[in-house]
């Protein structure tokens, strides 16, 4: 099964962030587990971003989701915020066995 992953795309000479859809493989979690995928977008000029998290069960059904805005200082901080919100979603839903996925390529 493939899902559409969203990757940030910066428009040259602007502070505009857009998303480019790319087909990426997605595997369901094992029975009894939940998989939460999260991602974000960040504007360096505005020091603001948005995040989203989607939780799926072993049958690939969406069972919960979360999204919102954030004020952060960097792209790395926005990725961390998105992961934290994914963890918070799992905590508030009471899930004990959770796999988290994020496509961050940040290394600093």
Automatic annotation (TrEMBL):
<dbReference type="InterPro" id="IPR052929">
    <property type="entry name" value="RNase_H-like_EbsB-rel"/>
</dbReference>
<dbReference type="InterPro" id="IPR012337">
    <property type="entry name" value="RNaseH-like_sf"/>
</dbReference>
<dbReference type="InterPro" id="IPR036397">
    <property type="entry name" value="RNaseH_sf"/>
</dbReference>
<protein>
    <recommendedName>
        <fullName>RNase H type-1 domain-containing protein</fullName>
    </recommendedName>
</protein>
<dbReference type="InterPro" id="IPR002156">
    <property type="entry name" value="RNaseH_domain"/>
</dbReference>
<dbReference type="InterPro" id="IPR044730">
    <property type="entry name" value="RNase_H-like_dom_plant"/>
</dbReference>
<dbReference type="Pfam" id="PF13456">
    <property type="entry name" value="RVT_3"/>
</dbReference>
<feature type="domain" description="RNase H type-1">
    <location>
        <begin position="37"/>
        <end position="106"/>
    </location>
</feature>
């Amino acid at each position: 099964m493939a899902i559409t992953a969203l990757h940030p795309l910066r428009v040259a000479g602007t502070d505009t962030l857009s998303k480019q859809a790319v087909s990426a493989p997605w595997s369901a979690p094992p029975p009894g587990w939940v998989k939460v995928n999260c991602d974000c977008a960040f504007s360096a000029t505005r020091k603001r971003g948005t995040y989203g998290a989607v939780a799926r069960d072993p049958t690939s059904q969406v069972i919960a989701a979360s999204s919102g805005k954030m004020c952060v200082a960097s792209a790395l901080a926005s990725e961390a915020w998105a992961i934290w919100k994914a963890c918070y979603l799992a905590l508030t839903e009471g899930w004990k066995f959770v796999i988290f996925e994020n496509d961050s390529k940040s290394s600093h």
